[in-house]
Amino acid sequence: MRETTVKPNRGYGRWTPFWFLAPAVLTLFVIGIYPTIFALVTSFRQYNIARPREGFPFVGFDNYINVLSDSTFWASLLLTARFYITVLPIQLVLGLIIALLLHKPGLGLLKSLARVVLVVPLATTYAVVGLIGRLIFNREFGVANQFLDVVGIGGIDWLGSQGGAFAAIVIMDVWQWTPFCALILLAGLSMVPGEIEEAARLETRSKLAMLRYVQLPFLLPSLTAILIMRSADVLKLFDMVFVMTRGGPGSATDLVSIYIQRVGFRIFDLGTASAQAILLLILTILISRLYIRVLYREVN
Amino acid sequence: MKRFLKHCVSAFALAAATLAVPAAASADWLAEAAKPLKGTEISGIFLDRPGYRAIIKLLPEFEKRTGIKVNYEIVPYENTREKEVLNFTSRGDLTMALVDLVWIGEFAENGWLVPVSELAKDKATTDPNLNLDGFFPLLLNAFGTWGGTVYGLPFDNYSGLLFYNACKLKEAGFDKPPATWEEFATAYAPKLTDASKNQYAYALQSLRGETQSADSFMRFLWPFGGSLLNKDFKSNLMSEGSQTGLKFRQDMLKYMPPGVVSFDHAEAVNALAQGQVAMITEWSAFYNTLVDPATSKLGDCLAVAPEPAGPAGRLPALGGFSLAVASQASPEQQKATWLFIQWATSEEIAKAYVEAGGVSGRMAVYKDPDIKAKYKFVEPMVASWEKGVPEYRPRFPAWPAISEVVAEWGSKIELGQVSPEVGSKEIGTRMEAILQKEGYYDGKKKLLQ
């Protein structure tokens, strides 16, 4: 019997994994970690780039104290929480309905087409969504009021009233992000083994029971992902709202990201803006940890 | 004394360089001056507005005569200051500053602009017909001057004007526009408003941002004898004049379309252009939009007048931009940029600039009978520029922060969320905190606005 010897691969060494990982790690460092460290350092300085002659002295926790005692910051954070609590349930319910429809057997071509169409709102730039929103909700010429006229409801002053403006940004966010929820939930539904679904169908004809006891456990990881990603998205939602309302009227749509942008790039107080951003980062991490602890379950 | 003498000498040098017209001025001084600078590239920021489209139209002539390449980026107004500040602090590539009148204090105090007196020292690159006295003094003072030093030349110039639909006014029995705000409120507005037919007398652009602070809130302070600050830089919003003006604005809301707090310039102009309102007070630069049949139904019904006067007189909104040489540019680029700015704001091209859609800051061009006859906005605009307040909006570096406060609370007042008194008190408190931090109350900074 001929003995075979395994020759060591000459191209593979101790450092090979390092070289494969290096570009990704370097990119992450440049575009993610370095700016975060910079923001952290800046948050401890008086850093107004429109006042270069005043220098950038170290001020300890002054910026954080200013932020935490700033009533406008808290008001905008609460408004952001209200926005999040409003949009998320709508997006989850609509997303789940769409996902369940697409998960039903049959109608292959239509379902493929629907999946492609779902990507369109996601691929639309936020600023463009804002522009579309401005047109849709124009009091005189907008489609929203034309439609309401048809069903007999008088013209609503969408962007000129507090409730209307808030509702308008909610509708545009739901339009843009419901497909995202639908696609993620659809991916979750595709994880349910076919034989379990078949067996369940023989046991019950109730679709609600099927959803509750068979499909929902498989949807929990998707749900956790949606909650984490949407939390981060809502906290940094800027372009669409800025284009539609600039945070107004009054402070009806003054979300925390709009406020931070104003402090950072209108007043150029980057020290305070960085402190605000770091506090939001901490908040996002805490919320994410909470979701993972409470919701996330692996299905065996 | 030494400082005084220095100022006198530089003022004299500037005057000598700019006012004197050498008898033997070159037929094409620009081409001569640009010879050593051929191939130099300069860059600046333009807006998507008629004045910039006009200069872009004329630009090939400048490039052909000088061999200097002008690079420009068109940026929305809301992002312009951000772009410029970031560029200047990072020693970027801009050789020319586009300076809104409310940025002049910030840009000048940070040393980002080269004073005109410095540039004018070089006779080889200074137009023998520069003639600073040929600009409307109000514009040169408000747009280009800070602390007595001229930095920029008025380029894109606006005055608040009353644009109105003369046909609607005639139908309502008026053969001329309102001369005062009181006349406007008591006679014109009630007759021109019929909410059941979606017809309103007036639209005031009030979207949160600079539109709210500059176009809506400030517009009703000065003509009523009010102002943002008193001479000690404390809030003057609780004064009788300021409160009368703000209450007047509030009273006028019933004659405006619902939702004006969401109206930007485009919506207000459109409301007049499409026949929803009879009058708007807007910048002169929107004249071309209102006469263009593609964007306006007004046709011959469009008429223009100065803004109505208040109890304190006619003190209309003032706005506009100057062009200045950026100190970060190389010496060659500074010279080339200086040539471009002189050319773009010169009397020589003023007529062509106006005909291409711009609004020149030169007085001479508006004496031209052709221009007077062709452009209805000229006479009221010139009348508005005869008298006005350069500090219509304070031009110090603290304005952007104050503008945000005014924008937020100004729109809350308009929405009826707070009364003019409560809103004014809130603005005053926050504004004084900003000014305190800036060092205006402890003598660290001169009370310049």
Automatic annotation (TrEMBL), chain B:
<dbReference type="Pfam" id="PF01547">
    <property type="entry name" value="SBP_bac_1"/>
</dbReference>
<keyword id="KW-0732">Signal</keyword>
<protein>
    <submittedName>
        <fullName>Sugar ABC transporter substrate-binding protein</fullName>
    </submittedName>
</protein>
<keyword id="KW-0813">Transport</keyword>
<comment type="similarity">
    <text>Belongs to the bacterial solute-binding protein 1 family.</text>
</comment>
<dbReference type="InterPro" id="IPR006059">
    <property type="entry name" value="SBP"/>
</dbReference>
<keyword id="KW-0574">Periplasm</keyword>
<dbReference type="InterPro" id="IPR050490">
    <property type="entry name" value="Bact_solute-bd_prot1"/>
</dbReference>
<feature type="signal peptide">
    <location>
        <begin position="1"/>
        <end position="27"/>
    </location>
</feature>
